[in-house]
Amino acid sequence: MPTHGIAPIDPYAQPYADARAQLTPPHQSQYAMNDPYAPRRTQPAPPQADPAPQPQQAYSAPDPHAQQPYAAPDPYAPPQPPYPDPSAYGQPPQPYVDPAAYPGPYVPQPAPAPVHQPVLSPYVAQAPPQAPPAPYPAHVAYADRSDGRPPMGPPPGDGERKSAWNKWSYGLIAIAVVVLAVLGAAQLKARKAEASVKPLVVALSQRNASARCPRYITSVLTNVGSVRLDSEGRIADRTDLTGPVCDGLRNLYKPGGTAELACLTNGGKCSRNALISVVSISVVAHESMHLRGQLDEGRAECESIGESEAISRTLKIPLQQARVISYLHYAGMNPYTPDRYQVSASNCAPVAALEADLPGDPAILDRLRVQTSNTWRELAT
Asked: Please, which contacts does 45-53 make with residues 24 or more away whose CB atoms are closer than 8 Å?
């Protein structure tokens, strides 16, 4: 129904206004909810003089339950901040901050350790990630592991592992090398002498026999040649010579070794090596007679004195010098041997032939006889 300047009367307006007036306190703060149906009822604040500037003081949050000045509690108003209204001190309104949500002063936190994430290919089946293996104790040695992992090296932090070799180890190695060198040199020296003497032994014994020179300590302790017999009395195939005898024979096979024997016929002074060679030839001749089959010492001595021609042919020395060697064997060595070795012109034909036809000047032969006897006794004792 149209009205002509007269507002309709709301029958519910007055009762609602009366109820609102009863619920709303006479004083209301600026934070109260606006009522669209009723005017805002607030009591203006009493005039105040401009406050003098005050030094800034530490802020302390007031009790939220304390009665706020110039404002009455509004049951429909939102929750009030725990601090006073900043506009009362001439400051603009501040946003509400809940004290319970304030994190406190900033404390820098350590950055988390990076986590290695392997790149997984969608086309290749990848094994699930495994925890890193526990560190191995320091006493575990380098070894291959049976679980398929790489070989285990030294423990972390130890650095380069120290070598087990020290100066004592190197010293022992040096001593072992020296000993092996000495033994090897003695072995080589003996084998070389044996190979040189074998043709002489074969020629005198008239069989496939050989000589053996001492290698190591036997060359010092032994100075007598011998031929061994087995349990059935059979003669061995070699003669065991002493160190000095092998040395005298070795001198003959050196370059110019037989040239030293020229003193036997020209009257010159014989060197020690030449005299040792004369004694060595006589010893090999005697032992070769045993290898030939003669076990009697006297008969072997007599036969060895008569082998001057075989000696000269094998050693490539003049026959006259070989006869002088046989004479010195009889005159310079045989008298200083045991009785079973001694021979004379009456029981040995080669000795009688040498006495009937001396191989040189008697004065030279007598001087050589004395020198040979001294050398023989030196080597045989």
From this structure: 45/70, 51/89
pLDDT, mean over the chain: 75
- Where along the chain do its domains lie? 194-380
User: Could you report how far apart the first and last alpha carbons of the chain are, in Å?
Assistant: 171
Buried b (16+ CB within 10 A) or exposed e, 120-136: eeeeeeeeeeeeeeeee
How far apart CA 216 and CA 53 sit, in angstroms, is 119
Where the chain has pLDDT below 50, the residues are: 1, 3, 28-32, 40, 42, 138-141
Dihedral sign from CA coordinates of 190, 328, 325, 209 = negative
CB atoms within 10 A of CB 196: 17
∠ CA 3-8-39, nearest 5°, is 135
Please enumerate in sequence order all residues whose Cβ is within 8 A of that of 330, keeping only pairs 6 or more positions apart, or say none.
Answer: 305, 343, 351, 354
**Cα three-residue angle 170-176-177, rounded to 5 degrees:** 90
How many Cα atoms within 13 Å fall on the side-chain side of residue 214? 17
Q: Which two tokens stand for residue 311?
A: 């000696």
**What's the confidence (pLDDT) of residue 125?**
57
Whether the Cβ atoms of residue 193 and residue 249 lie closer than 8 Å to each other = yes
